[in-house]
Amino acid sequence: MESRPPPAKKFKTSQPVCGQRRNNALLQEMEIEQQRRELPIYRARGKLLGQLRQLDTAVIIGETGSGKTTQIPQYLYEASIGRQGIIGITQPRRVAAISLAARVSEEKKTELGTLIGYTVRFEDLTSDKSKIKFLTDGMLLREAIGDPLLRRYSVVILDEAHERTVHTDVLFGIVKAAQKKRKELSKMPLKVLVMSATMDVDLFSQYFDRAPVLYLEGRQHSIQVFYTKESQSDYLHASLVSIFQIHQEAPPSHSILVFLTGQEEIEAMSRTCREIAKHLPQGCAQMSVFPLYASLPHLQQLRVFQLGQKGCRKVILSTNIAETSITIPGIKYVVDTGMVKAKRYTPESGLEVLAVQKVSKAQAWQRAGRAGRQQAGICYRLYTEEEFEKFLNMTVPEIQRCNLASVMLQLLALRIPNILTFDFMSKPSPDAVRAAIEQLELLGAIECKDSQIILTQLGKKMAAFPLEPRFSKFGVRLESSRSNTSNIRQCLAHALFLNAAELQLDGTYATLDTRQPVAIHPSSVLFNCKPSYILYNELLHTSKCYIRDLCVVDPEWLYEAAPEYFGRKLKGVNS
Q: Given 340, 364, 398, which residue is the final one in a domain?
């Protein structure tokens, strides 16, 4: 009998799967490259690089969606401009720095943290190989404390300059001084680029020694802007109506971005939207609601960048954290309430109040620009065109409307010879500077000797923390507080004694410092209580001046924290 070989076994090969993956990766790379080529900035690439190669400083204006933030760092690196050091790009907010670094890393086909990295508070994803680095303006400022000349950087790009945050304004002066000093010492030159979609061009150009202004024309996608016919008395109700009108009329793949003013507002609106979405008529698409605000945990912030489920509308309710530099996939509609929560500081009263106010025209255009990032978009403004025309052209610089204690402490840590004559683009008021110095002196951070302001050892420690001076003074003993919280409350009293309020005979409260009438916020657990002395973290101005984030303290602790200060403030405490 003829023997036959056993039948060959059939094995499943992985080759087609691997091949498919390679094809998918190749297609994705080609798609990303095509997206880069379609950006308006791509047409100006050659001319732009020719100009930047010759300039030490430039102001770059480009519309939202032109591609300036993601492409210019890559263009510089690809053209070997600034390769001898790091190309640093600052952002006012951490979510923007992280998302931009991820996008540019994807475009360069590298692992995030190698060639391209980011540094934000409490997180540093860079390596020795990192040549393009996105970071918050606050983190670059902290680096400057250790190295005022910023020797590691060959290019510093100050992005979203129109926002005029405190950190950005201080950075303007630091970077300008570093550039000048490096030239005097014949060190590696520092190239400074100031970028925004909207800004007071003349002011920026003059500040940087009449730096040339380069304009990038065009945006990738068109945006339609609609105003209300009548003024809206309740912008929250108007937002809700707008969301569900869009939801019932537009395809579910089109996401909605709504600009609100704060965490409480956003969380309340999120709950309302989810509840209404449960009771919509049959046939309506499902709705997923995502909050976005600064104090939201990082991983929850990143959820807004994930692609939505098929057949489900994505609605993002955000503060002005989403106003600039970030691209949220799928956004077709923007609903702009025209309102923002901003700090206002009055040196005479010593009060820093968080108040809801109108946005500027620059902010309104930035918000509208969120709708045209990946496709043609629509922005619904919940205010009339006449109201819009009355908005301020530009946002008032934060340095002219906030407590300057943190700024003065940072300048002293930077070893600025005379902080009173620091080269600010927009100078703060002398009263605000004096109030900040007095506060730092009370906190024990500085000493004034022979008309000189000197940083104390405590002040040096305080400057090392990325916190406001009053928070960085918090010295708690390492012991259990499970059964007794008095040591924590006493620690708070030693740091926040300037934020103390006292119960009055008529049952109301007044701040100890300026006798400003205040009320406990209804959301506080102490709302129905009447403790004699309380500390507060925040002042919120709505119908009243509310204090919130409260802690009950003993008056003796306040006196121990600053005996000379409270000797004349407290009642019934013997010195």
A: 398
The pLDDT score that the predictor gives to residue 559 is: 86
Q: Which residue has the tokens 């068109």?
A: 222
Residue (of 178, 190, 289) closest to 244 by Cα position: 289
Neighbouring residues of 70: CB distance < 8 A, sequence distance ≥ 6: 100, 103, 104, 107
Q: Are residues 41 and 181 in the same domain?
A: yes
Q: Is residue 17 part of a domain?
A: no
**Prediction pTM value:** 0.83
Q: Which residues of 104-138 are buried (b: 16+ CB within 10 A; e: fewer)?
A: bbebbeeebbbbbbbbbeeeebbeeebbbbbbbbb
415 and 378: one domain? no
Domain presence at residue 4:
no
351 and 279 belong to one structural domain: yes
End-to-end CA distance of the chain: 118
Last residue of a domain, one of 472, 497, 527: 472
Summarize pLDDT for 400-417 with one digit per residue, the tens.
Answer: 998 899 999 999 998 888
Q: Domain residues for 563?
A: 486-567
Give the β-pairing of 331-336 and 153-158.
unpaired
Beta strands in 232-311 (DSSP E): 255-259, 286-292
Write a three-state SS string for 263-278: HHHHHHHHHHHHHHHH
Task: Reply yes or no on whether the pLDDT at 170 is more than 70.
Answer: yes
In the three-class reduction of DSSP (H, G, I as helix; E, B as strand; rest coil), residue 79 is classed as coil
Quote the number of domains for the chain: 4
Residues 187, 73, single domain; the answer is: yes
Do the strands 116-120 and 123-125 form a parallel or antiparallel pair, or are they unpaired? Answer: antiparallel
Q: Are strands 500-503 and 377-381 parallel, antiparallel or unpaired?
A: unpaired
Q: Check residues 468 and 227 and name the one with the higher pLDDT.
A: 227
Whether the Cβ atoms of residue 333 and residue 316 lie closer than 8 Å to each other: no
